[in-house]
């Protein structure tokens, strides 16, 4: 009885504070130019990524001008096509903020990487803990098979590499 009431109150608090018009709607917010978050807002096409950052409390990280990292940033289309191909619904993903955080941290390498520094095959440890593989051939540069479609976007001390798909860490079950 008591537990039930507590659960109800918790449910009410959560429902009251987090309201999304659709699973991945995004509200723009002011942040200083040049941060990763600001650059993503300026480039458009990253509203899904910014919403996922919000859900997983990583917005502050993307607004941190002292940060010196590489963000492999998936476009809106890249995220939706990857989820569709894997038969994963957006609403299933956004429900689990821990999962969202693991996925996003798998897109961040804790050092700035320019594409000129890549050799044919490279392995980088991400904030999530697992490695991503960057390969380079005559066609282009690929991260776990997804192409870097916009290279070396500067954001303070960090670098954004735009990719056309969502990187899912190994061993993750959605
Ligand atoms: C960021 O720069 C854009 C133009 O590049 C400008 O329109 C905008 O007002 C600036 N935002 C801030 C917070 O300085
Ligand atoms: C950005 O969004 C526009 C409009 O939705 C689309 O036409 C374009 O292909 C997108 N670009 C990328 C790189 O995803
Ligand atoms: C998420 O976005 C809302 C509205 O845009 C904002 O009030 C809130 O502080 C954001 N949360 C985080 C963790 O950034
Ligand atoms: C911003 O990043 C720097 C460098 O990683 C870190 O020392 C600092 O604590 C971060 N600030 C916030 C508010 O997270
Ligand atoms: C996709 O998921 C739905 C619901 O879980 C299921 O009914 C459907 O069979 C799945 N399709 C494929 C191609 O895996
Ligand atoms: C994000 O912050 C909210 C509110 O503080 C918390 O309920 C939630 O568990 C946090 N999510 C993650 C992934 O840290
Ligand atoms: C959220 O995702 C994590 C990582 O995949 C998983 O360990 C956890 O069980 C999930 N939580 C829920 C409530 O599904
Ligand atoms: C992961 O990448 C790091 C370099 O960032 C490398 O030292 C390590 O051997 C890699 N681990 C695996 C399992 O590939
Ligand atoms: C380059 O690598 C990508 C990703 O692995 C692959 O799809 C493409 O076919 C490769 N191109 C060539 C010319 O080998």
UniProtKB/TrEMBL annotation:
Keyword Signal: yes
SMART domains, A to Z: FAS1
SUPFAM superfamilies tied to this protein: FAS1 domain
Domain FAS1, residue spans: 33-167
Pfam families the record matches: Fasciclin
A cellular component term, taken from the record's GO annotations: extracellular space
Position of the signal peptide: 1-21
UniProt keyword list: Signal
PANTHER family reported for this sequence: FI19380P1 (PTHR10900:SF77), PERIOSTIN-RELATED (PTHR10900)
Protein name stated in the entry: FAS1 domain-containing protein
Species per Swiss-Prot/TrEMBL record: Galdieria partita
Lineage: Eukaryota, Rhodophyta, Bangiophyceae, Galdieriales, Galdieriaceae
